Structure formats: C-alpha cells, structure tokens
Amino acid sequence: MLLYFMLFYCLAICQGLQQRPLVIGHRGSAYLPELTLATQSMAHAFGADFIEIDVNLSKDNQLIVIHDLYLDGVTNVAEIHPGRNRSNGLNYVIDFTLDEIRQLTVRERVRPLNGTQIYPLRFPSRSVVPFRLSTLNETIELLLGLNRATGRQRQLLIEIKKPEYHTENNRSISRVVLGTLRAYNLTRPTDPVVIQTFHIEELMNIRRNLGSELRLFALMTLNRVGESSSDYDFYRSREGIANLSQTVQALAPDHLLVVDYDSNGTIVGMSNLTKWAHEYNLQVYPYTFRKDLFPGSSFENLVDYFWHTVQVDGFITDHPDYVLQLLENDITKNGSKNLASHLFLSILTFVFITICL
Fold first, then answer.
1. 207-235 per-residue burial string, b: 16 or more CB within 10 A, e: under 16
2. Surface-to-core class of residue 16, CB atoms within 10 Å of its CB (0-12 exposed, 13-18 middle, 19+ buried)
3. Dmax (CA) of the chain
4. pLDDT < 70 stretches in the chain
5. Which of 18, 79, 173, 212 could cross-link to 166 by cystine, CB 3.0-4.6 Å?
C-alpha cells in the first residue's frame, strides 16, 4: 500500500513539473497581418492556448475583428472609399457597412498618415496578398472548426473595444457580442471564450446587468493613456483588486504595471499587483511581449523573470511560438534536475517510513 502511495506521489510531481504559464496569441501572431483569419490560424497551429482578438461595430451593427476604431492603420480604405474620412483624416469602422468593409484588403500595420510600417521586419506592408477583415462570427467558426479538426482545444479571448465610444454612438457593443456568443451556445464559464475590456465598469455591467456567466478579464494600463474612464490607479491597489475579484477571473495589465524598469529598460523590481491578485484568486496575464520590441537587452531573460520571479499565470504575446519554445526549453532544462531532487526526497521518505514500520 505504501509503495502505491509513493508511486502516486511521484506521478503527481511529474505532472506538476510540466505546468507552464498560458500563452495568448496577441491579435493572432506577428508573422501575418494582425487579426486576419490567416494569422489566427497560425496562432492556433503554433499551440497558443488563447487567441486574442478585438471587436468594433460597423455602421450596420456587425462585429468587425479589428484593433482600432478606424480602418486606416491596417487597410487600404482611403483608396477604396476616398473622401469618407472624418475631419482628423481617419476613416472609422462605425461609418462603414460590412459590405463596404468587405471590399478592403488588409496589410501589415502602418502609421495611418504617412504609411510607415510600424514593425519593419514583419510581413511586408506593400504585399499584394489579399488578406481581409473578418467578423466575430467568422472567427468563432474558425476556432470551433480548427478545434474540431485538430482535436486541440484552443480558446478565444475577445476584447470589446471602447464600450464608452460605442455608447456615445448609441450602440451597446457588449449586448451585440453576448448575443453573437449565445447564437453559438457560448454562455458558460467552461466554454472556450473569455471577454475582456479596458473599461472595467463595463465588465461589471456585463456580469451584473447583462447576466453573463462567461469568464471576464480586466485589462489595465496607466491612467494617463486615456484608454477609458476607469481609474486604474484604484483598480491595481489592494482594495481595487479585492473589488475586482467579485466580478472577474483575471487581470491583464500592461507589463509596466507588473515590474519596475530603470531608464535602460533593466528590471529593478516588481509591484505588488501580481501578489495581491493571487491573494484574491485572480490570475495575471500581462501584455504585450514582443521579441522585436521589448525593454532591456534580453527577451529570454524578460520572459524568465516574469515566469519565475513575478510568477505570472501567462503571457499575452505577438510571438506565441517563440514564448512557447522558451517555456518548454526551460521545463526541459530544469525539469530533470527538479525531478531528480524530488525523487531523491521521495526515496528517503520511503526508506524512513519503511524503517519506522
């Protein structure tokens, strides 16, 4: 009987050694234009646990998978629909119907007013490959279809963009999102869908007034960024995190809120955010880890610090394949050493118990 107990104990240790933080493919992956069905498929194939997307409403109330409120950063809207821009020179998603948006092609992200590619070494922004914007329905169909075809169960992390902006335009984007998910019977906390937004009060509305049981993540940034009217200084305090724990299951903060950097980008310490979140049973998934844009001199050391020192629960990253590789290499490198140590202690315990008996 004792031998069986020891074997069970060793197996439990082996399983524990294989755990790693979750990896969330930010806008899919960095290798194809963001948020297209192609790059979402790539993130799924890479093994990302979640695929993160953003949704905005079109003029005819369709949920478009796009990061910005406007179309100019990632499409050729100015060429296809000239003269439709607002006074600031930008063409907003909410001013175009789905049919009009279907006419656009998607490119790698550029600065809207001068066309300079943001990440120069990524997919060429001048490529003639005809990528397209998709709807939330199409993204859900893609996820469920790939899950079924591959037998690998990935999840979808949906960011509702600027709920306050949509309210100002007489739209309840959260209601439309939840209605779309209900059509696919995606309503339970065990379903492969999570909702997040920067407007934390909207998360409370989704839970309390709209009655959703889906998992919710609270996105956080610095107040000065002006992402929403939410007071992030409060919500990342111990009191604020305790408040949030009544509504959400995780925090998704800017990594600048999780650790402290000096002027050279070297980590000099960490905040209490992760510790307090864990005290209230909230997980922490900081953003955005990019191997072509990161603080400090070593992306590998950055990931290692967030995993082993800060002990985050996952990474929101443009490079899910590379972060997965780093995590798995770490497990391979340290797993044998840790397993040997645990097994040695187990044998000592077994011998001690045997002698005592």
1. beeeebebbbbbbbbeeeeebbebebeeb
2. exposed
3. 87
4. 1-18, 335-357
5. 173
The rounded distance, in Å, linking the Cα atoms of 266 and 258 is 14
What is the rounded distance in angstroms from the CA atom of residue 254 to the CA atom of residue 221? 5
Distances (CA, A) of 211 to 187, 188, 225: 10, 11, 30
Show the tokens assigned to 126: 């001048």
* DSSP 8-state class, residue 106: B
Alpha helices in the chain (DSSP H): 2-17, 37-46, 77-80, 98-102, 136-150, 163-168, 173-183, 200-208, 232-235, 238-244, 273-279, 299-304, 320-356
For residue 74, report the phi and psi dihedrals to the nearest 5 degrees: -130, 5
Closest to 273 (Cα-Cα) out of 226, 310, 301, 305: 310
CB 154 within 8 A of CB 192: yes
The type of residue at 45 is A
Peptide bond into 36 cis (omega under 30): no
Q: Which two tokens stand for residue 351?
A: 């011998």
Contact 150, 321 (CB under 8 A): no
Closest of 166, 80, 91 to residue 130, by C-alpha: 80
Which among 277, 272, 327, 350 is positioned nearest to 1, based on CA atoms? 350
Q: Where are the domains of the chain?
A: 2-356
The reply to whether CATH 3.20.20.190 applies to domain 2-356 is: yes
3-state secondary structure (DSSP) of residue 252: strand
Tell me the β-bridge partners of 157.
52, 194
Sole residue written with tokens 């069970």: 8
The radius of gyration computed from the CA coordinates of the chain, to the nearest angstrom, equals 23
pLDDT for the residue numbered 331: 94
Residues 6 or more apart whose CB falls under 8 angstroms from that of 301 comprise: none
SS3 of the chain: helix, strand, coil, percent, to 5 = 45, 20, 40
Burial group, residue 136, by CB count within 10 angstroms (0-12, 13-18, 19+): buried
